[in-house]
């Protein structure tokens, strides 16, 4: 079983060699580590969680014309090619498909403890110090402003809207990042999220103080 994980890590590391920094191999590595942290407290199948964490971003739909099935399909092809048992492959595919923020906003058609853990691990990487870095990186990549007091956050955005919006990066905190702590599935992730959330709030307070010149 460990061999499956090692081979999958090698595959993903190579596949994401030239990925953009928000979803590069380092993001995968952090999510993988988050999964292992959560598994110290949460009971679930370790192999399933680790394989899904490794494979969850190999074909992000926003880089593939919104195709949400390509990721699970490619993950399945890879896992089959290294001989992973069929039921395990299917579970990993279900996790990847249902993990995206967008899918999670729709009708819930699949749940498992393993999905909850991997989804939490991914969401934890969007908040706290890393989350702040990723947001400003994304904003810079899209040439967004840091902040504009005249442009108020739109609190009812879905993923497609905020990805394509031209709003300043600070708005993204109110439109998504500060909402994530209440979307965690597991108690362990809720505890970690509370700390990372508090750090973002302190960051924003300081940001606005400095914006006003003191
Ligand atoms: P995920 O892969 O978790 O669904 P996304 O693909 O939506 O996340 O976003 C990847 C990273 O880019 C996240 O850290 C997210 O906060 C950040 N990001 C997405 N949209 C914006 C935005 N409009 N402004 C700033 N950061 C953004
Ligand atoms: Ni991710």
TrEMBL record:
- Cross-referenced SUPFAM superfamilies: HD-domain/PDEase-like
InterPro entries given for it?
A: HD/PDEase_dom (IPR003607), HD_domain (IPR006674)
The segment(s) forming the HD domain are 24-127
Recorded superkingdom: Bacteria
PANTHER family hit by this protein: HD_PDEASE DOMAIN-CONTAINING PROTEIN (PTHR33594:SF1), SUPERFAMILY HYDROLASE, PUTATIVE (AFU_ORTHOLOGUE AFUA_1G03035)-RELATED (PTHR33594)
Name by which UniProt lists this protein: Phosphohydrolase
* Organism field: Parapedobacter defluvii
